[in-house]
Every structure is written in C-alpha cells, then in structure tokens.
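Example 431.
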Amino acid sequence: MSEIREIHVPDIGDFKDLPVIDVLVKPGDTVAFDDPLLTLESDKASMDVPSSAAGTVASVIVKVGDRVSKGSAIITLQIAANETPAVASAVIAPVVVDLMVNAAPIPVAAAQPPSPVPTLNASGAKPHASPSVRGYARKLGVDIGKVAATGKSGRILRDDVERFVKDALARLDNTAARSDQSGGLNLLPWPDIDFSKFGSVEKVALSRIKKISGANLARNWVMIPHVTNNEEADITGLEAFRVQLNNEGGKDAIKYTMLAFLIKAAVATLKAFPQFNSSLGNEDGEPVLILKQYFHIGFAADTPNGLVVPVIRDADQKGIGQIASECGELAKKARDGKLGPADMTGGTFTVSSLGGIGGTGFTPIINAPEVAILGVTRAQMKPVWDGNGFAPRLILPMALSWDHRVVDGAAAARFLQHLAALLADFRRITL
Ligand code: CAO
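Predicted structure in complex with oxidized coenzyme A:
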C-alpha cells in the first residue's frame, strides 16, 4: 500500500507570491525528507524549499515562473506504506529552519521525521546545517560532517558546501597535474596587458577563418610531437621544362605551376613511403595506423581572411595540367571566400608553398589528422660543386614536418631524398 500526498510550501515568514526560479525534481525522482524541491527568489535572496516527506515524485504541480506562498501545492509524492507513519504522524513543531541561501534564517514550521543518522564533523560535534543546505550537500555527494562552517554559531552555509567542492576539485587537479609530471602543462596564465599604456593601439577582430584555423593550429602544435627535416632539391631541369611547357601553350593554355609538379612528386613519394599518407587512430583503446590508399593532397592558400587548405582529390589519378588548373580554381575560390567544406576535407598530406613570396625555410605545422606536411620556399640559383667545378643550379629549399609518433627521422630523411631525386629528374616519376 502506498499513499499519494501533496507537498506544500511551508511557512516562509512574511514572504508571499515568490517566483519559482528552479524546479529541482521531476516525476519519477526519489526524494528524501529535506531534499530541495524548488528554488524561490525573494528580493533579498534565493531559497530552497525542502520536501516534508520522503517518496517518489508522482507529479510536479508548479513550473518555473509560477508564484507561490505558504501552503501552495508543489508536488504530489507517492509515499510507501512503511514510510508514511513516521512523517504523517509527526508532530508539527515550530523550529527554526534556514530556508535561505546566503541570507538570514526565516522561522518556519516543518514536519520533522525521525532524525537521520547524525554525521559527525572532524571535532566530533554534530554538524549544524539547515535542511536545504543538507539537501544541497547530499545532492553534490558531500559529507556535511567534513564541511567547515562559517555561519553564525557554527552553522554550515551553502557557500561552505560550495567552497568544500571547489577545494576538493582544485586538490584533484593539482594531484592529477603532479601525478602526470605536469602533463597537464600547468602553464602560466596568458598575460593580460593594457598595451595602450605604452602607446596608441588599434583593435581588430580576428576573421572567422583566423579563429578556426588558429584553434586548429594551436591544438596541432601542442598535441603532435613535430620534427622538421630540411632538404634541397635541384629543380634546374624541372623549371626549364615548366617554362618550356608554358611557352608552348596558347592564350587559353593551362599555366603549369611549380605547385602542381610538387603535388605530383609528393604523391609518388607518398606511394613509396605509405606511412606518411596515414592517420593515427584508435581501436578498442589501442593506437592503430590508418594507411590511406587514396591521395587527396591539400595545399595552403593565403587569402585576405586567412589561411585555408583546399584539397585536390585523387591527385594520383590526375595529370599535372589538371592538378595545376584545379589548384588555380580552388585558390581563386579560396580568395573569394567561396570554398565549401567538401573542398577542404579528406586531405591525406599537405603542401605549403611560399615560393612565390620568398624565404629560405620555415617549419610548417602538421594539418591534423594528417601526419606530415611539406613546406617549400623560394628556389634560388646557387653555385653547386659538380665534381669539376661550380655550376649554377636552381635549388629549392624543402622542409618536411612529421609526427614523431608515426614516423621517425630516418624515414623522413629518406622521404625527402626520394622527393628531391624526383624533382631533380622528373622522368623518375614514371619508374
Ligand atoms: N621558387 C621560386 N619561385 C616560385 C616558386 C618557388 N618555389 N613557386 C612559385 N614561384 C614563382 C612562380 O614562378 C611565379 O612566378 P611568375 O609570376 O614570374 O611566373 C610566382 O612565383 C607565382 O607562382 P604561382 O602562380 O605558381 O603561384 P604559387 O604556386 O606561388 O602560389 C598558392 C599558389 C595558392 C600556393 C599561393 O597563392 C599561396 O597562397 N601561397 C601561400 C601559402 C602559404 O601561406 N603557406 C604558408 C602556410 S603556413 O602559414
């Protein structure tokens, strides 16, 4: 046998028509005596309304925004037969119950159930706290006996419970940071400086692309153990061939770019070193290497709004002319801000060319979840010893950043040697 009982707002002093700002229970919830049911807000503070009985919530009568006073029905509670007598026959005795949070106590009348097992604090004394604060502590899993009281006459306040939880979390964080030898990084906070103290400044909001790429680059830089290997490729013959192809073309001919040759040579090198065309994955908690049998090559494109990486799909199945014209179209789309997600996803390796701009070398950041990226800078004529004398050769500086969890320095050096050999004599690509 069980009984359905309405639970009402108890005497809340002079307060009337208080708005409900939170309903803390829903049908089906089990509540204990003293568990908070509602939060009300007066012009001075908010207060929790505790349950005057234990049971299962059958229905919730009030909702956020309703106004309640003493005697308003809050919920109906299904009370098991073995639980009813203690509460039902309890003598309603006037007691002082602190319904307030961070505010002065209000005298109310409440039904008193048999006292719960007293929780002792460190000093062995029974902790002194209102039902709502006890309910709040119970909800957070806090042993009220361990909470240090700051209220009048040793009363434990809601703030005390919150402080206890914050301290416990901080201790947990510190312990975690110590136990992982500061793997949690434990960095100094970013300096918050008012630069206008030193001179005039102008504030410019970051573009959407900068915000997105910045967050990705920061994650990749921090989470991937990057190493960058450098190599030089003699592209004297290749550049002569490229210029010849472009000179042969008519008015509407494709413009053969160095980038297109680099993409083609990168694909051939990835085929020879498949671990560079992979991603790190996880299967049943174990790391696995996902080797991709497709070759979608991204290239970094500088746009007025920031860096984007459009992707040439199946570059292994395309000729250099097609790669060059697709790069041109995608770079234009990028500059016009018209790239869609499909243009920028699925890449397996990235080429970042600063050759048209300048530089002698840089460290590209891996475009995760890829595991390597090739950066090239401006090719320059250099005197190169050919065994008999110095000969002028066009030398392309290359930088390969790679993920040390997946590949190692020897593999990276071989990758670059292979790539340099292809660029030095492009006929080798057919071998
Ligand atoms: N060495 C010497 N010259 C080079 C070169 C190289 N490696 N690569 C290109 N050039 C020359 C070309 O010959 C061409 O010269 P001409 O105008 O005299 O013919 C000029 O530079 C422009 O080359 P291009 O039309 O082939 O364009 P590109 O390949 O240099 O650039 C693109 C295309 C999309 C890569 C470029 O516009 C771009 O955005 N680059 C920046 C990429 C970037 O920002 N990377 C850094 C990422 S990390 O922040």
